[in-house]
Amino acid sequence: MLTLTPGEATLAQLETLWREGTPARLAETTGPAIAASAARIAAAAQGDQAVYGVNTGFGKLASVRIPPEDTATLQRNLILSHCCGVGAPLDIATARLVMALKLLSVGRGASGVRPEIVALIEAMLAAGVTPAIPEQGSVGASGDLAPLAHMAAVMIGAGEAIYQGETLPGAEALARAGLSPVTLGAKEGLALINGTQVSTALALTGWFRAMACLRAAIVTGAMSTDAIMGSTAPTRAEIHTLRGHRGQIDVAAAMRGLLKGSEIRESHREDDARVQDPYCIRCQPQVTGAALDLLRFAGQTLETEANAVTDNPLVLSDGSIVSGGNFHAEPVAFAADQIALAVAEIGAIAQRRVALMVDPALSFGLPPFLTPEPGLNSGLMIAEVTTAALMSENKHLAAPCSVDSTPTSANQEDHVSMAAHAARRLGGMTRNLAVILGVEALCAGQGIEFRAPLTTSEPLKRALAAIRAEVATMGADRYLAPDLARAQALIETGSLVAAAGLEMPE
C-alpha cells in the first residue's frame, strides 16, 4: 500500500504505482481539511447566495439556481450527461493512476468532497475495481470532463468497470468487490470531473516511458560508438563543462563510463586527432543531453500538477468559495509537447546511428547490413527501414498540440489546452522510439561482435549479453519480427540499462 501525502507526492511514487499496480491511500493527516471543506460546501448548498456548481447549473447554465432538495439529482445528472467519452479505454495501469491523482487533488482539502468519496476511491484501488475510461473526448479545459465522468459514473453505480479481467456494469463490479456506490452530495460530482487528472496521468506515463528510452539510448549510443570504432574524444568532460548544460554534461559522463576499458576503443585511440565522426556519434551528448534537460523540466511540471488542486470552485483557507481556472491544463499540454519533442529527437539521432552501421561506405569496415554473407542475405537492411518509418512518424506526431484551441460549451469555454491528446500521443511515440532503440541495440551488438577478437568495455559486454539472452547473433536471414519485439522489450523494461549498470542523476 502506497500512502500519498497531497502536495508532496513524487514522480518515483507515481511511477511505482503505475508500474506495479500498488494500491494507494491518502495520509491520515488529510482528514480534517477534507471534512472542513465538505462542511463548508454543505452549508453553501443550503444558503441563499449563488455558488457555482453547488446550487447552480454548470457552464453556460450557471445562472440557473438549483434548490437544496435537488442537490443530489444535480450532481448525478452532471455525471451521467458528461459520460460522452469515446475510443478505447485507458489501460488499467493508467486508469488507476488517474484515480490516485484524483485522490491527491481532493486530498488538499479545497474541493469540498466528503471523506466517503475519498474512501471509495481508495477501496476501489485496493480491490482492483477500475473504471473503463474512454481515451478520447477531453479538450483539456474545464478539466478532463468526459473521461473523468466515466470514472465517477462507476462510483455512483453506473458506467462500466474492469474487475478480475471482466468488463462489467459499474454497480456489478462494485458489488462483486464488496463495495457500495455513493450518493453524491453538493459539488462532489463537479469535483470528480473537473480537473486535469486524465491529461496528467497520460503525460506522466509518457514521461516514464520517455525517460526509460532516454537511458537506453545512452547505452545503445555507446554500443554504436564502439561498433563503428568511433572516437570517444568528443565525450571529454571539459568540452561539456565549457558549454554548461547539465544534461549534456551528464550524458557525456555516462558515455565515458560505459566505454571505459574498451579494447575496440584502445585499438584506434591514436586516430582521435584525425577522425571526426558523423554528428550522430560525435554530438550524442549535445542532442541526448538537451532532450534530458527538456524531460527533466517536463517532469518537474508534471510532479507539480500531480499534487495540484484543479477543480472549480475551490474552498479557500478563509472559508470563501471562489471560482477560478485551475482546471485549464495548459501546463500539462506544454509538458506533453516538450516530451514529444525530446522523444522525436532521441529517435532521430538514434536512427542515423542505425543507418550508419548498416552502410558499408560509412561503417568503418563492417559488412553491408551487418550480415556475414551480404547478397545472399539482406541482414538488417529492412530493420533499418522500419526505424526510418517510425522516426518519420514520430516527427509528424511531435507537432505541438498546445497551440491549438477551439471554443466549446456555447463559447463559455473559449480557450482550451488540448492537453489530453497532447499527452495521449506519447504512448505511441515512446513505443516507436523503443523499437528504434531496440534495432540500434541489435545492430550495435552485431557490429561489436564483428570487431572480435577485440572486445568492448565491461558494461557494454553485460549489455550485449542481455541482448544475446533474448536475440541470437544474426547469421543467415530469418524471420525478424519476434527479434524486434524482444529487443523493444529490453528497452521498455529497462533490462538493457540495468545490465549495463547505467545510473543517471535525476
TrEMBL record:
Pathway info: Amino-acid degradation; L-histidine degradation into L-glutamate; N-formimidoyl-L-glutamate from L-histidine: step 1/3
Short name of one Pfam family: Lyase_aromatic
Catalytic reactions of this protein: L-histidine = trans-urocanate + NH4(+)
SUPFAM superfamilies assigned: L-aspartase-like
UniProt similarity note: Belongs to the PAL/histidase family.
EC annotation from Swiss-Prot or TrEMBL: 4.3.1.3
Taxonomy, superkingdom: Bacteria
Record protein name field: Histidine ammonia-lyase
PTMs per UniProt: Contains an active site 4-methylidene-imidazol-5-one (MIO), which is formed autocatalytically by cyclization and dehydration of residues Ala-Ser-Gly.
